[in-house]
Structures are given as C-alpha cells and as structure tokens.
Amino acid sequence: MSHRAATKVFQGIEEEIATGQLKDGEKLDEASLAERFQVSRTPVREALLQLVGSGLATQIPKRGCFVKAPSFRDMIEMFEVMSELEGLCARLAARRISSQQIDRLKRTNQGCETAIASGDSDLYYDFNVDFHECIYEACGNSFLAQETRQLRRRLQSFRRLQLRVRGRMPQSLEEHHAIIEAIEAGDADTADEVSRQHVMIQGERFNDLLSHIDQMR
Amino acid sequence: MSHRAATKVFQGIEEEIATGQLKDGEKLDEASLAERFQVSRTPVREALLQLVGSGLATQIPKRGCFVKAPSFRDMIEMFEVMSELEGLCARLAARRISSQQIDRLKRTNQGCETAIASGDSDLYYDFNVDFHECIYEACGNSFLAQETRQLRRRLQSFRRLQLRVRGRMPQSLEEHHAIIEAIEAGDADTADEVSRQHVMIQGERFNDLLSHIDQMR
DNA sequence: GTTCAAATTATCGTATACAAAAATAAGATG
DNA sequence: CATCTTATTTTTGTATACGATAATTTGAAC
C-alpha cells in the first residue's frame, strides 16, 4: 500500500461512494475535498482522474467532477459481464491449469471450508477472493486476469454484503467444489457454465442486495 | 475533442507507443516530455496517470513511469478477451435488438459494401467501426458496450493495419452478413459463435500483423 | 584496485500561485 | 417587472516552487 496522499484520497472517495456517503450526481469539489483530506488540490485532482478512469465519476470540462454511483441497472450490467469473464477464466483454466495450481486451488478452498466452520464471514470472504485469484492466474491470460480482478474489485463492496446473506456461504462453497471438479477434469464447458452460474446467482439475488444498499443510503 | 493540454499529451504519447516511436520499457521522463510537448509538468503527470490507468505504462513509486507497449503475447491475450466480449455483445443483441436497430445495422453494412466496391479501405474501416457500434448499442448492456469499445480502441491501430491485409475486407464482409443473419433470426448461439470467429480470425493472422509492426519499430 | 560510506544530484510528489473560463450576481434599460 | 448586459466571483486548468526520497557520484579506507 502506497503512502501517497493521492491514493489515500482516491481510496477515501471510493469508499464513500461504495458506502453511499457520497451520493450519485454529487459534485466532487476539489477545494472542499482538499480541505477534508488535509491535502492540497494537486493530489485531489489526481485522485479524481483515477476515479473517472475507473468509472466512479464523470468529468465535464470546466464544470468539474461528479459522482457516478452505479445504479441498479449498472450493477446488473456489470454482473452480466462479470459472469462472462469469470466463466472464460474458468474455461481457459480447465485447459491450462498446472498440477501445482490445482493443489493450491484445493488448499484455498479448504480455507473457505474452515472459515465456514468457524462462521467467520470475513475470513471466508478473503479465502473466496484467493480462490478466484487462483483461477485467474491459472487461466494463462494475464490481461483477462487483470480485467476480471478489476471488475471484481469494483463489485467488491457489494459482494461482501452479498456473502453475508443467509445460506449463501455454504452454497457458494458447493459451487466452488463443482468448479474445481470441472477444472481438474479439464471440462472447459462445465467449468465455464458453473462459474457463470456462480456469479449470476449472486446477481439474481439483487433484492437482498438492494435492501442492504438502501439501508446505507 | 478537448483542448486540454493534458489530453493532447496523453494522446500524443499513446500514438507514439502505438506506432513504436516510444519503445517498451522506455522511461517517460516528466521533464523532457514537458519540454517536448511545450507544457509544464502538471498536465504531463495527468497524462501519465491516464496512461497507467489504460495499461500503456507502469509506474514505480519514486522511480518514474515506463512504457508498457503490448507484447505479442499481450495482444493475443487481448484478442482472446475481445472475441469473448464481441461474442457476448452479439449474443445479447440477438435477443434484444429492435427492428430500427436491425435496419441501421443493415444500412451500415451496405456502407461497408460500397466502401469495398470503391476499394477504399479507410472508408471501410470507418463503416466497420459503425457496424460493430450498432451491435454494441443493441446489446442492451451499456457497461459491456463501453468495455468492448475501449478494448477495440486499444487494438485499433493494429486492426487498421489488419484490415489492409489482402483479401481480408471481403471475408470480413461475409462474416458481417452471417452476424446480421443470426442476430435478425434471434439465434444467440450462432451470433455469438460467428462474432467470436470474426475477431479470432484476425487474431490468428498474427504473422501478417507482426510483420507490419516490425516495420514500424 | 576494490569497496563502502557520505555528499551531491536528480527526480518524484505535493503545495502554492496564477490565468482563463464559466457560473453567478448586479445593474441598467425597455 | 422582466430581461439583457456587464461586472464579480468562483472554479477549473496550468505553471512554478519547494521538500523529500531515491539514484549517483565522489572520496576515503583497506
């Protein structure tokens, strides 16, 4: 983690958008942000540029920056793409994974199991990230891996809530097993299909998700 | 197009990376870039941040920015993802396209035909972009559309060369017809498959492409 | 001659200053 | 009283200045 002022501002604003403190359409005033984060306008501007780059804000020339919090529709759209990317990762991993990578994948998923056993959803969350990271690395396409990681990160704060939904963790784990099985068997089609579902089931549970978001707003 | 100094620097560097003037690993020195583009370091730094954001440069803290020109492997990876996204666009478009959008798609492709008839590859290129833009808009997922557009833009300078490869334009047009047919018939699977091929055939012709790139370097 | 340490230099990251453009307010005219 | 014009103010975009940290060079000791 960087100690740069710019990254702190970026992550700070990102967090506030995710939690709903900063609402959609709200103006991101450079001066007041600089005041709030106790830095000058320079790092604030850098942070805003990065926000625009990652799609969390829009910039109108000579008018300023505005929060672009993802709408319900936006999130459905992102999940639709996410499931496709995740599916592609699994498909490619089924063809390209090494035996060491399979071992690591299994070990990571055992971490998920122990996390569930201890009822620690934060721990499960971390192992779950690792699990998918294993697949990204095994897909043999670092560009795809990076894109998928990025999108996952963008849906991250919402997914974290998602995993806490009752009964989701064991189900998620079952899906993991199916994914591992398909990848190990080199069954690309099944790996793709199951991974797609794994993401989309979360997408279909949007009502649960929305209630959480509404609470935050 | 913006008149900002920062965007001019960004596009300038982007172009120089695409053409190979700026080689992989080369240092992007803020001072000399500012000198070269006749601006101060501030807009140069903004441009570098955007370059890093779009993956064309890497930044090592307190060490500076370095060109990250896509390698042969990188481009294969990007094509692999591109074909998937393009396929998904077509798949969704087959389910969601409106009759007006179909008409526009056909008209645009007629533009492609006349461009070929007149042997104008630049004109064909523009109509080809429009053709795919029609599909992006018809897919009903603006996030997916944006991501696909972005990746297409990144492969753009290479694709432009690609289309000039002998015999590629008529073949590309044939594929367009197949795509239109599948989308109009609402045949999502075929639309997906054909679109995937449409991109991948270009990817498979990498030897032709590479010779062009080598000439530039 | 080699190696390690201190001083120097260069460059990055941030702060501040300034200029240009747009939004807002004020005033004049009908 | 409404509206258009003009002045003020705010804010963006760029330039410059400064401090901190890493790279480089110089010099001394072995």
Task: Compile the SSE list and pairings.
Two copies of one chain form a homodimer.
Chain A: H1 5-19, E1 27-28, H2 30-37, H3 41-53, E2 57-60, E3 64-67, H4 72-96, H5 99-117, H6 121-138, H7 142-164, H8 168-184, H9 188-204, H10 206-216
Antiparallel strand pairs in A: 1-3, 2-3
Helix pairs in contact in A: 1-3, 2-3, 4-6, 4-7, 4-8, 4-9, 5-6, 5-8, 6-7, 8-9
The structure holds a DNA duplex (30 and 30 nucleotides).
Write out key terms for the chains shown.
homodimer; 217 residues; mainly alpha; Arc Repressor Mutant, subunit A; Four Helix Bundle (Hemerythrin (Met), subunit A); 2 domains; three-stranded antiparallel sheet; 10 helices; DNA-binding
Total of domains of chain A: 2
Number of helices of chain A: 10
CATH H-tier superfamily of the largest domain in chain A: GntR ligand-binding domain-like
How is the largest sheet of chain A built, in terms of strand order? 1-3-2
Biggest sheet architecture of chain A: 3 strands, antiparallel
Which structural class should the secondary elements of chain A be placed in? mainly alpha
Radius of gyration of chain A: 19 Å
What portion of residues of chain A belong to β-strands?
under 5%
Largest interface, with counts of residues having CB < 8 Å to the other chain, equals: A-B, 25 and 25 residues
Spatial separation of the terminal alpha carbons of chain A: 29 Å
Spans of chain A of at least 5 consecutive residues whose pLDDT stays below 50 are: none
Listing every helix as H and every strand as E from the N terminus to the C terminus, the arrangement of chain A reads: HEHHEEHHHHHHH
Shape of chain A: elongated
Oligomer: homodimer
Kindly report the CATH topology of the largest domain in chain A.
Four Helix Bundle (Hemerythrin (Met), subunit A)
Mean pLDDT figure of chain A:
86
Helical amount of chain A: over 70%
Named CATH architecture of the largest domain in chain A: Up-down Bundle
